[in-house]
Amino acid sequence: MDAFSAHRSAPPATALSKALLESSSIFCNRGTAGATTIKSTAQLLPKHIPLTKSSSSWIIHIPKFFCSPSQQAFKQVWKTHPSGYHPIKVYGKKFEENRYSQLYSIFDGGSKTEDSDEEKSTGTRTNDNRIQESYTYSGTTRPFIPCDPCKEEELFIMTLCEVADNLVSQLINDGIVKASPSTIRQKKQSNQLYNCCLINWYQPEHHIGLHSDDEAKMDLSVPILSLSWGGPRRFLLRPKPTLQQHALSPVHEILLKDGDLLIMGGKCQEEFKHEVPRIRKRDVIAGNRISWTIRCVKRSKDANAYGDMQDNISTPRAKRRKK
């Protein structure tokens, strides 16, 4: 499918949630019990939420974009979480992430050349010869695991990246967002914007603190998408100190439920931080949660080629204001 061709007969969420269901073999032959249902067009309309007065930062929330098809499918993905927590450094001190997480990529080619910090700290080497590149954040370097289409859970990640490409391109076609020239150029050169996925597995006691996905390897010209399965969790966005006077609110809160899709675009990573806070006593205690965060990262060999790609996707046309 040409990601820049228009499909105006239905909102993008409707067509693409169907494509996601049909394309991933993880949901095939599961029977009808507990199977997911494609929601009506009205239920899948994107909700645009500007975060700043100029709409320089924005999010799009699509409720029930793609719900977990069954308890069996959820459990199958849940069982793939790492056995332990990944180490990180905060202000020079070593901690462990308060959740399970793993990085996957759909890169082509390449080879593993050195041990990651994670492997050095555990004294073990990863025998998976598919590991090719790494990603550094919070004082630690972690390897990507390139997706194997023969594994159902990893095929689903590949499908998510393809759907993310098509969805963002559809939003561009429909005038909801306007692509920067560098984004269009990158898409035409590689026919692919999204090339990696961070999966987080949350138990009820897990959380992630305030942070921005603005590491050097991130391509900030491309929006970040996140799909949620399982129990509902609060998602908060707070402006960085220098942007507080330009923000529409000191905190934006969204309750992400099973199947919800969140898109963060514009200068969101530069101007805001986000978190999944601890569950409060007054919150409804929910079950486990899985999130897939789809991103575009720069390949090591392409670092110089991305030098001119930091102009962000601009604000949604309907929401822009004259300066």
UniProtKB/TrEMBL annotation:
It comes from the Eukaryota. Pfam families: 2OG-FeII_Oxy_2. One of its GO terms (biological process) is DNA alkylation repair. 2-oxoglutarate binds at residues 200, 202, 211, 274, 289, 293, 295. Substrate binds at residue 214. Signal peptide: none annotated. Residues 193-298 form the Fe2OG dioxygenase domain. Coiled coil: none annotated. GO terms for molecular function: broad specificity oxidative DNA demethylase activity; cytosine C-5 DNA demethylase activity; ferrous iron binding. This is 2(OG)-Fe(II) oxygenase superfamily protein. It comes from Nitzschia inconspicua.
